[in-house]
Amino acid sequence: MIRIKDIAEKAGVSPTTVSNVIHGKAGRVSKETVEKINRILEEMNYVPSLSARMLAREHSGLIGVVLGYTREGMKYALEDPFIAELVGSLEYQIQEKGYYMMLVTRHKGRDLMEQILGWNLEAMISIGLGEREIRKIRGRFSGPMAVIDGYCPLPEGVINVRTDDRGGGYLMGKYLLKKGHRRLLFLTDNDESVDHERWLGVKEALEEERVEDAASRHILVPEDPSRRRRQYLEMLPFFREQSALFFASDLYAVEALNFLQDRGIRVPEELSVAGFDDVAYAKLSRPALTTVRQNVGEKARRSVEALIRKINGETVGGEYRISTFLVERKSVSGRKTTEERS
């Protein structure tokens, strides 16, 4: 093992000087000495201890990202492409600020609280936790805390960074109606938080256009993939009577694209399909998916910047709402109205 003492002897300086250079405290060290020490560090392949660097900075440098999110049919949360993109964006933003990300996920036999308190986190970001868990954590964790996509009452001081989900649902609803799709369905596996807000946006668009059976346009499907496919098979004659299917996530939308086309239903010629999120594979599907983009990078940036400001003792807002916009690709076609056909 290479010691700081060994480097100091080779450079002809004190161990304290070497330590200051390694830990970025070289303000009183000459430029020539800094260059000499760095050259020796490189020659000797010296890699500083992460724990020692944290100790030298007098704080852990760790920001926890806590994933309470699970989707049935997936073993790991990061199998979901949206969650993977969000976590990747958070890791990038955290490193840009000079901190390190500690990912905390659910594991059998290991309580989330045990994992959170087991590390000396300076701040934390929660994704997919319910109100009870957030309040439990807040009761024992005093550092700055942010929630991504919180749709429950949050404890005082907890920052909420969320997408304008209702606005996104409304945006797609108006777009499909403008394309002539009055026989459209909104499909989701739950009617809570994010998905509920997206439905409310669609419902508002339907009601504005005086679609009489607006409430019946909301369809709940099973979260389990095999049960969902069975329901799709049972509903196939009903789907054929519709003109557009709008799914609450791109994951379900792309799955439906494949399901429909495997059964001879042409998309978008016979049935249009739309999604929400604009994950990476939305543009890779065939046809490429029309969807609502939520700016994941902006969501990550706002979350991390707000926490860093809190760490530095600054005052920050309680909620940040990220705008959405529509991405038009090839999975939705125009539908002639009754008047145009006649």
From TrEMBL:
Keywords: DNA-binding, Transcription, Transcription regulation. The lineage of its organism: Bacteria, Bacillati, Bacillota, Clostridia, Lachnospirales. Residues 5-47 form the HTH cro/C1-type domain. One of its GO terms (molecular function) is transcription cis-regulatory region binding. InterPro entries: Cro/C1-type_HTH, HTH_LacI, LacI/GalR-like_sensor, Lambda_DNA-bd_dom_sf, Peripla_BP_I. It holds the Pfam family Peripla_BP_3. The keyword Lyase does not apply. PANTHER family: LACI-RELATED TRANSCRIPTIONAL REPRESSOR, XYLOSE OPERON REGULATORY PROTEIN. SUPFAM superfamilies: lambda repressor-like DNA-binding domains, Periplasmic binding protein-like I. This is LacI family transcriptional regulator. Residues 2-57 form the HTH lacI-type domain. SMART domains: HTH_LACI (SM00354).
